[in-house]
TrEMBL record, chain A:
Membrane topology label: Multi-pass membrane protein
Domain of life: Bacteria
Keyword Ion transport: no
Name of the molecule in the record: NADH dehydrogenase
Primary location class: membrane
The species this protein was found in: Niastella yeongjuensis
An annotated GO BP: electron transport coupled proton transport
Pfam families documented for this protein: Proton_antipo_M
Family note: Belongs to the complex I subunit 4 family.
Compartments, record wording: Endomembrane system; Membrane
UniProtKB/TrEMBL annotation, chain B:
Protein name per its UniProtKB record: NADH-quinone oxidoreductase subunit N
Compartment(s): Cell membrane; Endomembrane system; Membrane
Top-tier EC class: translocase
Molecular function, one GO term: NADH dehydrogenase (ubiquinone) activity
Membrane-topology annotation of the record: Multi-pass membrane protein
Coiled coil: none
Residue span, NADH:quinone oxidoreductase/Mrp antiporter transmembrane domain: 120-413
Native source species: Niastella yeongjuensis
Protein encoded by which gene: nuoN
Chief site of localization: membrane
Pfam families: Proton_antipo_M
Catalysed reactions, semicolon-separated: a quinone + NADH + 5 H(+)(in) = a quinol + NAD(+) + 4 H(+)(out)
Length: 490, 477
């Protein structure tokens, strides 16, 4: 029931924001903040009160009612360790997204927060839906409000970016829908006409590694790797990330990309173990291509947000590499990478947003020497740039290290090439610091203000999160060990 | 005719009476409001009669008619659509100089034609229904005769509809020659006994041409865009919903009787038509700047989707009915917005007129957005379960080619729906607000009903179970 509450608070809160904003925009912001905090405190409080022991295949919460019984569609929400850590990430970034928008969004505030909260509701739903129809439903629910966020409050080129984002994701989504249907019928025929979309029932479908299984698996996989994104299908990402408002980029990079990875771990591997083992080599190769390609392109960007967007392509390549290693260590690393990348890239986008608010540009050639004016922001940026290049003590190091270690056992050549990505990441990361905060001081008439109290809250919580993940990763490993073992066993 | 048979066709008798009542009213009191209210009450009477007789169904009324669950469903949908169209017509015509009285006679006659189609089991009743529908439509389309586009559209429809009627008659004649009967079931028995001859197949082909024309299936779609654009907005809504529902109903019944879906040739031809519809409709809509033309092409595409369900035979009927329900509600709310925005001089069909509508009139834009999202098949709106059920039947029947085309063209479709939506949300131009002179009651009523339609779309999108169960119950009659 907790999960239902979490999603409904966000949905209702979104509508409330819209209604309140007509009277008082400030009240609307507070409504949004309260709704997001309340929605995500629920699972946390529940967890602290019950402190369940997570081992093996333990499902923490399971809630199921009928929805459209005629088609075997249920409203089935469930949460295990993996879902729980993703929900935690959603909560953290959701709250920060609301805070980020506090001053940036000046017009149409109500509708903005409506969309923001509905996107978060969709993302939350994706992480806990255990009925494939319901999963697809949430998958789309997060899409439409995100489209509006980009299309209305984005930058100059927002309409094209929003189209591209929507059409890419929708194509993948529809292919996934077809695969879901195919799986539904195959399962129904194997089980004497017991047609159902329930995840746990569909897990028992015997598919093997024939052509049918491969096609169905590809339908799912394409939807997820478009979101991830994998290299030939990534072209929506730089546009969407750079044109979206700060909170939009934060959610896109921090959460939407993670839904793709989550989908692969939750659905593709358990449902089609043989078929996905069959394409693992190709997937790892494309992952490595993504690592190198993303890093090289990131180095070539002059637009700060675009640069960060390409680093996402590079980091998500690690995820693909790790997932298809089918190796406990690599999978632990992947989950870690999801969290740390969400935090560190989210922070970089937030920083880019703060810089843009002050300087009204994203072009790093027009920045420079900002450390003198904003030492605090410079220091904060340093932390996350270091995280991004994989400095030990910060979370990303652990994640990427584990992935490479795990992948090395399976495919040493690709892992060696992938580790080159770490070198390249040092290049582009240091370039951010050098161009923006050091170097020639640009002639700016009035020096920009340093970090404000609200921005301190945002950055401080992200810093704490990334350092914590870097020093004490064990709680996360404990939480997800059940899922990881289950996937590896397949 | 027995009492029960009389009861079964009572709704249709009331529908026919509605047209006569309006004629008499015009003789006595020429008030738009009175006609409107009377029409509304008569339509409610039809619904009520339908409700009253539902337990006596199904009932054959030989030789021409059969009133069964399928007929009840489609007639109910038709009456529902006409109620909305009637409401929209009031506002639309009250703003103009033209005398709208005869309009309602034609509207009700066309509705009767469409309703007769849903209950016909014989070529004669099919033809009568179709002609009743078409002839009324000629006049309805060109009703605002001092507009250039209207007359052009009317003439275009007249010529092509007459041509298609000729095809239909010729096809019927061929089938009659081969089987010696014009009753669907008797035809089915005859071909079971002696198989299909070449002339029979030709007859079916000619009938398909005529029906394809009425449903605006590719390659018989050439009239659609011009007629949608030229006709008054409520009439366009009528063509897009009522007339197509009726024709689709008779197509389902005829195909079911003669087992059309088991004939390889017919299936191949219809498959090609469906693919062509999806491709042509969606691609031609891409660059449209005119909202009515855009909806015309989009409805071509939607009937392509419907054909996918149709090809699945009996298994697809439930999906097709649900799709038509969702589609009608969606289109009616879209055309409702177009009607509300239309001025006395021209219809609001230019896309640039919608720029920034959201910031001027959030409610209207919200309704329009929901309608467009529903057409695009996005979850939380009725379009999504509708498309989902069609995909389900397609996958079940292993029609992978059709299903893949459906998915890919839906993506193309997204592009133009999003284009309209982003226009609605773009920053608005400075335009003076339209003046209102009508009695506010009708605005409130129209707004209220549009909001109800929007809520229906949301409800169907989130909880389609109720409608699905009821459709199944009706179809099992």
């Amino acid at each position: 029931m907790i999960l239902v509450w979490m999603i409904s608070i966000l949905l209702i809160g979104g509508v409330a924001c819209w209604l309140v904003a007509q009277r008082d925009p400030l009240a609307c912001k507070w409504t949004a903040l309260v709704a997001v905090v309340a929605a995500f405190l629920l699972p946390v409080v529940w967890y602290l009160r019950h402190t369940p022991v997570v081992d093996g295949n333990a499902w923490l919460i399971d809630y199921q009612v009928n929805w459209i019984p005629a088609f075997g569609i249920g409203f089935h929400l469930a949460m295990d360790g993996l879902s729980f850590v993703m929900i935690l990430l959603t909560g953290l970034l959701g709250i920060l997204a609301v805070l980020c928008s506090w001053r940036e969004i000046r017009e149409k505030t109500g509708f903005y927060f409506f969309n923001l909260l509905w996107t978060l509701a969709g993302i939350g739903g994706v992480f806990v839906a255990m009925d494939l129809f319901l999963f697809y439903f949430f998958w789309e629910v997060m899409l439409v409000p995100m489209y509006f966020l980009i299309a209305i409050w984005g930058d100059f080129n927002r309409r094209n970016a929003a189209y591209k984002f929507f059409i890419f994701t929708q194509t993948g989504g529809l292919l996934m829908l077809l695969s879901i249907l195919a799986l539904y019928f195959i399962h129904g025929q194997q089980n004497n006409g017991n047609y159902t979309f329930d995840y746990f029932a569909l897990l028992n479908t015997t598919l093997g590694n024939n052509a049918t299984a491969r096609w169905i698996m590809l339908g799912f996989l394409i939807a997820f790797v478009i979101k991830l994104p994998m290299v030939p299908l990534h072209s929506w990402l730089p546009d969407a990330h750079s044109e979206a408002p700060t909170a939009g980029s934060l959610i896109l990079a921090g959460l939407l990309l993670k839904t793709g990875a989550y989908g692969i771990i939750r659905f593709v591997l358990p449902l089609f173990p043989d078929a996905s083992a069959g394409i693992a080599g190709w997937a790892m190769l494309l992952g490595v291509v993504g690592i190198i390609y993303g890093a090289l392109l990131a180095y070539a960007q002059t637009d700060l947000k675009r640069l960060v967007a390409y680093t996402s392509v590079s980091h998500m390549g690690f995820v693909l590499l790790g997932v298809f290693s089918f190796n406990q260590m690599a999978l632990q690393g992947v989950v870690m990478q999801l969290l740390t990348h969400g935090v560190s890239t989210g922070a970089l986008f937030a920083l880019a947003g703060m810089l843009k608010e002050r300087l009204h540009t994203r072009d790093i050639n027009q920045m420079g020497g900002l450390w003198t004016a904003m030492p605090h922001m410079g220091a904060l940026a340093m932390v996350f740039v270091m995280a991004s290049l994989g400095l030990p003590m910060l979370g990303n190091f652990i994640a990427e290290f584990l992935i490479l270690l795990g992948a090395f056992e399976v495919n040493p050549v690709l892992s060696v090439i992938a580790s080159l990505g770490l070198v390249l990441s040092a290049l582009y990361s240091l370039r951010i610091m050098q161009k923006v905060f050091f170097g020639q001081i640009q002639t700016i008439t009035d020096p920009p203000a340093d970090v404000s109290a609200r921005e301190w809250i945002i950055m401080a919580s992200l810093t704490i999160a990334i350092v914590f993940l870097g020093l004490f990763p064990q709680p996360v490993f404990n939480l997800v060990s059940g899922v990881v073992e289950q996937v590896v066993r397949l | 005719m027995t009492y029960l048979q009389f009861l079964a066709i009572l709704p249709f008798i009331i529908l026919a009476a509605a047209a006569i009542v309006v004629i008499l009213l015009i003789a006595f009191k020429q008030s738009h409001t009175v006609i409107q209210v009377t029409g509304f009450i008569m339509m409610c009477g039809v619904v009520f009669a339908m409700w009253y007789v539902r337990d006596t169904l199904p009932r054959q009324v030989p030789p021409l008619l059969v009133v069964d669950g399928l007929a009840a469903l489609f007639t109910g949908l038709i009456i529902f659509s006409v109620l909305v169209v009637g409401l929209l017509s009031y506002i639309y015509f009250e703003e103009r100089e033209e005398n709208p009285k005869e309009y309602y006679i034609l509207l009700f006659l066309a509705t009767l034609g469409s309703a007769v189609l849903t209950i016909s089991r014989h070529f004669i009743s099919l033809f009568i229904g179709l002609e009743l529908l078409s002839v009324s439509l000629y006049a309805l389309i060109a009703y605002l005769r001092n507009r250039n586009n209207a007359v052009e559209a009317g003439v275009k429809y007249l010529v092509l509809a007459a041509l298609s009627s000729a095809f239909l008659l010729f096809g019927m004649a061929l089938i009659y020659m081969e089987t010696g009967s014009m009753e669907f079931s008797a035809i089915a028995r005859a071909i079971d006994a002696s198989g299909m001859s070449i002339l029979f197949v030709m007859g079916i082909g000619l009938i398909l041409v005529a029906i394809g024309f009425k449903l605006a299936l590719v390659p018989f779609h050439l009239w659609a865009a011009d007629v949608y654009q030229g006709a008054p907005a409520p009439v366009t809504a009528f063509i897009a919903t009522v007339s197509k529902i009726g024709v689709f109903a008779v197509l389902i019944r005829f195909a079911d009787a003669i087992h059309l879906q088991q004939n390889v040739l017919a299936v191949t031809i219809i498959t090609i038509m469906a693919i062509a519809c999806m491709l042509v409709g969606n691609i031609l809509a891409l660059m449209q700047q005119n909202v009515k033309r855009l909806l015309a092409y989009s409805s071509i595409a939607h009937f392509g989707y419907l054909l996918v369900a149709f090809l699945s035979g009996n298994a697809g009927v439930g999906a097709a009915v649900f799709y038509l329900v969702a589609y009608s509600i969606t289109l009616l709310s879209a055309f409702g917005i177009i009607t509300l925005l239309s001025t006395a001089r021209r219809d609001a069909d230019d896309l640039s007129g919608y720029r920034g509508l959201f910031w001027r009139s959030p409610l209207m834009a919200a309704i329009f957005t929901v309608a467009l999202l529903s057409l695009a098949g996005i979850p939380l709106t009725a379009g999504f379960p509708a498309k989902f059920f069609i995909l389900t039947t397609g996958v079940q029947q292993h029609r992978w080619l059709l299903v893949m085309v459906l998915v890919l063209t839906s993506v193309i479709g997204l592009f133009y729906y999003l284009r309209v939506i982003s226009t609605l949300f773009a920053s608005p131009p400075l335009t003076p607000v339209k003046e209102r002179t009508l009695h506010p009651f009708f605005y409130v009523a129209t707004y209220a009903s549009l909001v109800v339609l929007m809520c229906l779309l949301g409800w169907l999108g989130v909880y389609p179970g109720f409608v699905v169960e009821n459709v199944r119950a009706f179809l099992s009659f």
